[in-house]
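JOB MANIFEST
job_type = single_chain_structure
chain_count = 1
residues = 272
[input]
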Amino acid sequence: MKKQTILFKYGGNAMTNTLLKKQVLKNILSLKKKGFNVIISHGGGPFIKNILEQVGVESEFIDGQRVTTPEAFKYIEMALKGQVNSDLVNTINTLGGKAVGLSGNDGQTVTAEKRLHKRVVDGKEEIVDLGQVGNIAKVDRTLIDVLFDNDYIPVIACIASDENGVGYNINGDSFAGTIAGAINVEQFIVLTDVDGLLMNKDNPDSIIRSLNFYKIKKLKSDGIIQGGMIPKIEACENAIIAGAKSAKIINGKKPDQILSIDEDKFGTLIRK
């Protein structure tokens, strides 16, 4: 019988707090021991911010997206692969798991393409060059399946190169959602810093337990889905459209929710 697969998008405070990180990874390992294939996709915004500040590389943001120069990309790659990915793999292995650290480049798992960002200025649409910021053009699941077949946990950093070898920084939510769809996961779980999507962002009791695509469209137009929740919801939508069976946003600061991801009382479930 084929194992069910869960992909976790990992980030936020659950990544920067050492004790919390260990508990999150311990609970993910518990699901692995129950017979699931588990894969972790991660970004590392706080770590990128720190390394760029340390080396004196200034960051410019356009519509919330970091413009990535060749110099900045070099340090972003250091932070994501050399620091975040290495630390996650080491922690999982210390907890008794078998993790393998990857980026999209390994095994040509992800082929990137340059992201052409569009925005409207004075009523006219224009293309803005964000530098080495990309989207996923193609996913090859071969290496991921080899790792699953040999009982490993793939841990993937959200960077990849195009067909000419140019490296790109890819939004962590978009990266995770695209891979989740491409490998047809049963569950795509986004770990964030809140309990899910809130009808009123100032009222934690206003959580929306389930959403379909029609309701997402309306909540976007009403301004309920806003800020950092937009790419997370869109990643869930895209994952489901591409082949994921379900998607859910839960609070990574409450790691016990990981053990109860099938329960309706936690998080926001997205359905088509």
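[summary]
Residues 70-94 form the longest helix (25 residues).
The mean pLDDT is 92.
exit_status = 0
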